[in-house]
Amino acid sequence: MQFNSKSKLLTIFLLVFFLFNFGCQKEVEADSAAPDFSLSDLSGQMASLEQHRGSVILLDFWATWCPPCRMSIPEMVKLQEKFGEKGLVILGISMDDPQMVTDEQLRVFKEKVGINYSVLRVSRQVLQDYFGNEQISIPTMFVIDRDGKIRDKLVGFRPGALEKSVSEIL
Questions:
Q1: Strand bridging mode 38-40 / 140-144
Q2: 12 domain residue, yes or no
Q3: Are strands 46-48 and 38-40 parallel, antiparallel or unpaired?
Q4: CATH number, domain at 81?
Q5: Helix (H, G, I), strand (E, B), or coil: what is residue 79?
Q6: Average pLDDT of each block of 10 consecutive residues along the chain (170 residues)?
């Protein structure tokens, strides 16, 4: 079976549409307490949710191999620049397999794309705490208020949605 140009374009359009709208999906209850964690950053330092209590936190579950994740990064960089002094903390939680993407490779990626926020390595416990037994889609972003409550969850690449959510909480 051969595809003509219109069929190929339609197939590509539908694939891109679903990736943008649904991500590479779990429902967390709004206003539930965000589970604390302690994860290693790319320099080997431990970072926890508790150490950022009092700030608005954006947790981004992502991976270097995920196109919608990569498309979300520039918006988060701008949000960190715009709202960092107002108390926004962005924590990128990498879902990359450490055996496939080393910390050094993640550092190079972070520098190359201009990530200006912390990148942490995911753990099974964090996945369990935030996603339970549901299928995980990435990117998934949790917006956590100054009191440690999950106020929003965004799945997939949705331009402008993060800024709207963060602005409402700040």
A1: unpaired
A2: no
A3: antiparallel
A4: 3.40.30.10
A5: helix
A6: 46 42 46 91 92 95 96 96 96 96 96 96 94 91 95 93 91
